[in-house]
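Hey, I'm writing a tutorial for new members on how sequence and structure tokens pair up, and I'd like a real worked example in the thread rather than a made-up one. If someone can provide the structure for the chain below, I'll link this post from the tutorial.
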Amino acid sequence: MATPRVCGVATDSGKKEKLDSRFRGNDKKTKRKQNFMFFMVNKPATAGRGGKRKCNMIRNPKSGIRNSKAWARRRVPWLRCLQPRHSSTNHSHAWTRCPSHAWARRPGHAAIRNRLGLTLMELLVTVGIMVIMILTFGQILSSSQKAVNVSQTAMRTRSAGSAIEKVIRDDLRKITKNGFLCITQASDGSPRLVAVTAGVTPSKTGTDIGNGGIIALGLCDNLAGSLPIFYHQAWVLAGVGGTQPAAGSDVMTHDMESVVRLSRNDMNTLAGSIANTWAPPNTYTPQRSIRIPAGDINDISALWQVLASECYAVSIQWTDGTYDGTNNLYWYGIECNDGGTLDDPTDDSYTAYSKHPTTGVPVSSGVDAWPGVAFDGGDPNQIEFDAGGYRALWTKDNQSNWPVAIRIRFTISNPAVIGTEEASREYEIIAPVGQ
């Protein structure tokens, strides 16, 4: 097939006009260009009468020529990119298609031009890009969710710490010197505190209301978990007699008056029973054994004793206001030595420090330390002694040697965010006694 050509001849003058401006969209600049005649050859030129070329004549529609079919053929896309080609004839300029549209008339290229699908390589590249984007967005979302979880856990832990501090401060503030205050060691060496409080004390397990109570703080085992529980018992002094409270009840068979009338020996015995025998877990009253999460109704009825779950490294110490050479307070009592392994209370150890009778320096061993010192019920000035472990006891018999403040330290664990800085949080509470 021969290459189509277009020839143009001016009709209003004898001059030859170039038609390239016509195809660049400048046909409205002058009216003179509206009278051009266009000739398009779609097949090899043949000689007609007089040896002239046979051409299909096309006139600008504005000139009135009715050859609409030929004019429509002129509107094909490749014709708009025609480029002038100089001819050796004296009548016209020859026009050819620009190279960018040369493929439009080549055989077999119509299917490629009209193709709607993708090749296998294009699909593989697209799928690979999508996989990378999905993995990236997934990691971003996972990091964001982890940050949110850590933040929420930290907020819950701080809230729990604030609630625990409020409970302990209220208890220490209500301690009365007409009763007793005892800091003692459990069988595993962990510290426990028992004290008599004054004021209206409502029952948590019933409807009884007492005019006083006895509080108990310490660590106990969680029968359904690995980490201990920081328990808090608030016994209501609303009964008569002196036996152990009924199962599932927080009401003691004592009233405030009967407790105040107890001797020093009886107060020591009662404090030891509350700190050891009545503390959870308790085989005598299974309702006092704590299991979190609860498994039955008995476990639910024992939850009134829970102050904080998943707690460890508890220290309970006291001070009478004695300072060292740098104006730092001396603290006596039971201190936890964390073994360093996070959330592992089995490596924790406890050291009890008593007050040196001469220098006031805390000592844990030696002649002037508490080990080996027997309890003297007739000596109201005796504070620290050996009761199968460290014990410090203050009673109504000598109200001048009571401590001025109590310091309690503990750590709350967050197993849900292990590996972050919020995995555990330490707390320290220092509160005055009886104020």
